Amino acid sequence: MTDQSDRLKVALREARLNMTEASKRFGWSYDTLKSNANGSMPFSFKKAMTYAARLKVRAEWLYAGTPPMREPIKGERRPVIDMPVIGWVQAGELADASAIQELADGEQVTVDGLAPGEWFATDVHGDSMDRVSPEGSRIFVNASDRTLVAGRFYLFSLRGETTYKRYYDDPVKRLEPFSTNPANRAIFLTKDDSWMVVGRVYRSLINLE
Questions:
Q1: Which terminus of the chain faces fewer neighbouring Cβ atoms within 10 Å, N or C?
Q2: Residue ranges of domains in the chain, CATH in brackets
Q3: How far apart are the first and last CA of the chain?
Q4: Cα–Cα distance measured from residue 97 to residue 88, given in angstroms and rounded to the nearest whole number
């Protein structure tokens, strides 16, 4: 499924609810739900979170199709994933997830506890994110998850330059550092910017040896 309306209808069907039942049970506007479900009106991520909470699916899946559809059942073991390690500058060349294996330098790491996706690891340079990822940390990036959600962490690229930042869109769109160094400043996005979302960062590890 690639269309929001299709995914919403799947979620309703698997919850064994029609639109009338769902709108009455959850206090949703029937007209809005109908417009969202028939594709005449796309819905925001905020609305996706509202639907997802009641229909027991992930908002990221409902909004943009990012797998999995649901969070793993508590106690369910996620599969072990082998992923390549990509150089920091090389990450700027990741135009799409298919480039991951091409850019890998041969090093592989094995990680568990992550959802299915197109994963790679890369090592952090600089101190702009040192509150969560000090220099030398290894971060794990899902290149198939490029849906921007305020407050989440992402790897971005612009003409070969790669940066790891937190995304915010209120009151303006910007890439925020999360740093103990006050010299690090936010990058404010304009209409002329062509920053590419390489992927969402889900985990950060630091070697203490």
A1: C
A2: 4-64 (1.10.260.40), 81-205 (2.10.109.10)
A3: 45
A4: 16
